[in-house]
Amino acid sequence: MKKNIGLLIVVLLVVAMIGTYVKQQIDKDREIETASLGKEMDERKIGLNNGDTPPDFTLTSLDGKDVTLSELRGKKVVLNFWATFCPPCKAEMPHMQNYYEQYAKKDNVEIIAVNLTQAERDVTDDAKVDSVMTFRDSFNLTFPILLDPKNSAGLAYQILTIPTTYFIDSNGYIRRAVKGPMNAEMLKNYVDALD
Fold this sequence. Notes:
Low-confidence stretches: none
CATH architecture of the largest domain: 3-Layer(aba) Sandwich
Radius of gyration: 27 Å
Shape: elongated
Oligomer: single chain
Largest sheet: 7 strands, mixed
């Protein structure tokens, strides 16, 4: 009888040790899978399609502040490419300003308007920034306007049509691209669909 109890205790200890070992292995496998998934998500394709991570850039605003797109992660971003000579750009700016005033702060949205400064027409290089400032002031725009004097962001985003707008979710992924002007309803609906 004592032998049976001793044997039972040994068997129980062995089973407990095997169970502990198996649990540790399962936990370790889960950690590896989680790390792999996190790495896979961080390495998501950089591109311009739905679900891609948009190309990152740092540009200077009219107010002299450097703005880096990737630092806006955590916010929904409306990334608009435009020029002062573009009639459709002029048509959509009041809608963007109204949205910015009414919803941006409450909906955690940042509107970034990238002026394709190199493409500005009918002004000398020295007057291009002044032309953008005059445009901003005439439309009473208060959202950040970034200057792209070397067309680096314009090239990275393959901008051929202006305006072109990218809607980026708070995780930093492109969810929609719109080539051409937007009205107030489109802008609101597209932003609402981000998260």
